[in-house]
Amino acid sequence: MHLLQASGIRRKYGSLQVLKGIDLDVAQGEVVAIVGASGAGKSTFLHILGTLDRPEEGHVFIENTNVFTQKDKDLARFRNEKIGFIFQFHNLLAEFTALENACMPGYIHGNMPEREILKRGKELLDLLGLAHRMNHLPSQLSGGEQQRVAVARALLNKPSIVLADEPSGNLDSQNAVELHQLFFRLRNETGQTFVIVTHNEDLAGMADRRLVMQDGLMLS
Ligand SMILES: Nc1ncnc2c1ncn2[C@@H]1O[C@H](COP(=O)(O)OP(=O)(O)OP(=O)(O)O)[C@@H](O)[C@H]1O
Fold first, then answer.
1. What is the DSSP string of 86-140?
2. Ligand 1 in reach of 39 Cβ (< 6 A)
3. Which residues form the ABC transporter domain (predicted)?
4. Whose CA is nearest to atom 16 of ligand 1?
5. Into how many domains does the chain fold?
6. Which of 2, 147, 148, 173 can bridge 128 by disulfide, Cβ–Cβ 3.0-4.6 Å?
7. Domain that holds residue 182
8. Mean pLDDT estimate for the chain
9. What is the mean pLDDT of residues 63-73?
């Protein structure tokens, strides 16, 4: 059984058929990269995998849950618990420290005692080489450090899967390489599963599978 199974995903905006029937199976512990020309539909597909958007047709199963049969409220809870997101622009909250930002999904989730949330946040920031930056505000961190805080935030609730959309798109090449290595380290050490949309061919080449999207279809 796959960790994630998407089948027959179709989505249109107005008369534009952006996704034309896409299937994707992802195994536990896999790192899958999706590449393709601008406008191919990669972000639209990733948003659907992340339950941020609903398809017109098709199904997504994550850990055996048929996600879109859930009501919006249940889906929001499921998303917070099971899915970690990393975007090109990290969207850290400017008035909160690195630690507070990393802990945010734990506070939203509301199931873990605060002590445990803080413990997990500190452990993750430590793992990501940010032990000495926990009490800094985002504005006091470099771009690479900010993106690593976003990675810690994505991992806080121990998600089943992390979805990343151009995660290194805003980083210089050195920081990009470090971030990419971090993904594989997390996979190797914790079995974390990733689906990553990227234009970065070095990252795509390192992935277990490099899939190509074109005009709303998955080519390989
Ligand atoms: N909310 C929206 N309303 C209307 N059209 C949209 C919307 N979101 C995306 N589109 C269109 O859908 C198509 C696919 O967009 P998408 O962002 O999924 O592509 P992409 O492959 O991720 O591109 P890029 O590599 O440039 O990020 C594009 O033609 C885009 O203009």
1. EESS----TTS-HHHHHHHHHHHH--S-HHHHHHHHHHHHHHTT-GGGTT--GGG
2. yes
3. 4-219
4. 41
5. 1
6. 148
7. 29-54+71-218
8. 94
9. 94
